[in-house]
Structure formats: C-alpha cells, structure tokens
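Async update (no meeting this week)

Hi team, since we skipped the sync, here's where things stand on the single-chain job. The sequence we agreed to prioritize is pasted below, unchanged from the tracker. I ran it this morning and attached the output directly underneath so nobody has to dig for it. Comments welcome in thread, and please keep replies under the output.
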Amino acid sequence: MFQSLNHVISMKDFTREMIDEVLELAEKLEPFARGKPCRMLEDKLLALLFYEPSTRTRLSFDAAIKRLGGSSIDFGMVEASSVSKGETLADTIRVVSEYADAIVLRHPKEGAARMASDYSSVPVINAGDGGGHHPTQTLLDLYTIKRESKLEEIDIALVGDLRYGRTVHSFAYALSLYGVNIYLVSPPQLQMPQHIKSDLVHRGITIRETNSIEDVLGKIDVLYMTRIQKERFAEQSEYLAVAGSYRLGSEMLYSARENLIIMHPLPRVNEIDASVDATSHACYFKQSFYGVPTRMAVLVKLLGGNV
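Output:
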C-alpha cells in the first residue's frame, strides 16, 4: 500500500491503511531506535536540507538514518550555501538528488516541498513548508497517542496557533481518519482556517470551538498544545496581540481525566509551565523521542529496507 507513495509531502496523500502501516512498523523499529544494532539501510545516504531552524526534526531524522545503519549529509546554514549566491530551490534539489537516496526538506514557503518533488530523482520528505504541512510530525503524534493512549474515537483538543500552525493542519486531517471528536481552542485571530474545518466536517468529524482551555480540560483524552509562532506574523503588533494567550499550569489539571495526556510538538515558550512536567499527564518529551522510530519507519518504507 505505502509503495504507491514516492514522496511524503502531505497527510492528504495518506490513507488510514498507509498510516497504520507506518505506526505498526515504528513499533517494530522502536528497539533499534533505543540502540539495538541495525544495518537495515546501511547503504543509504540521507540529505538534510533545512532552510529554517530546527532541532527535533533535523536531529531525529539524522538519528533515524544512523540508527538504521545509514548516513547523512547536511545542508548546514543557508547563509553558507549557494542559496546565498542566488541558487534556486529547483536547482539545489536537482543537484542534491544526485548525491543522496532521499531528501528531507524544510522551507519557509508553503508548497515548496511539493515543487521540490517535481525536480527530484529521489524521494522528498516534507519537514515543514511554511504554514502548510509537516506530515512526519503528524505521524509521530499519532504514534505517541497509540503508544500512550488509544487512537480510536477519542476526544482531543488542539490549542494555540491553529491558523498558521502547519503541525495542527496535518494533524487534524489525519485525526479525521480515526473518528475522533475535536475541540479547537484559539484566540479569534488564530482560528483554524475555514477550508480545513469544512473538510473535517465533510469527513464526519464533530468540531467544537472555544477560546478557553478550562472549557475543555475535563472533557478530553488528549491536550495538544502549540506555541504562538512569532515567525509567521507579518507585523509584530499582530503577534503581540495574541502572544501569551495560553499558559497551562499544573494547578489547572484538577478537573482533567485521569488518562489525559498532554502533547506539544516543541519548542515550547511559555504555554506549558515547567510544573506540568512532573505530572503523569506530561507526554511531550516521550513524544519527541517517538519521532525517531516513526521517521525510521518512513525511511524504511521509502528506501526499501527489509524488516
């Protein structure tokens, strides 16, 4: 089923069966992500092209290919590359696809990964394209829920920057395949785009909107926090108007369900207080680790490793 996908650009390209294949494989690969020796992709080379800052995505992909026995080449800082000389993304992709077996691309422009796939002779994995999509983040988020809770028919709240947050855009589409109920929590200026909400309703998903975390805390199984992304605002005044809209503290969890898990794609700024880290609900650091076996699974699926 997964073999029909040559690139990983958007969760819209995935069926539920394809997602389940990745999650099942990630679970099989998790012991290797924790250090068990593996030579599954020992002859493969992964190129990391990040036009925007990244810690978890860049390092977890690097860890994933190396845990599988492969190796990587890194684009490094944009300023130190030929981009600073005016080289186009298309030309960069043409060149790098001759060096490596797959390309991981992060770019500030929405649609850049889709365009790059048109010029690449090897698989392109979208590691975030502006306010567009971040499919492997969604896959690791789903894997986290599967490992720490359950995926079927849960109640989940997406909180924070739902307008510009590519993470929640991809995540919402994927969640719609699992019959969940979704609460959207954001300031009015940062509501989920209408076309995404319409798509979710068309898929039979129940959506409720509010601007208060307290309204949903006792009703959900998963709380998915996101930061307000300063870099997505054209004007600083617009950012300052919504910055700090949400701050989750441990004292707010008195009404939470016992099985509630709290997730965050990280980095966090001040939207989750450090006091939450010690609670049984905190799951965001586990979530970050789960990026390694999940991305290992994606690489194996794309590059043909034998499990």
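Quick observations from my side:
The mean pLDDT is 89.
The first strand starts at residue 45 and ends at 50.
Reply here if anything looks off.
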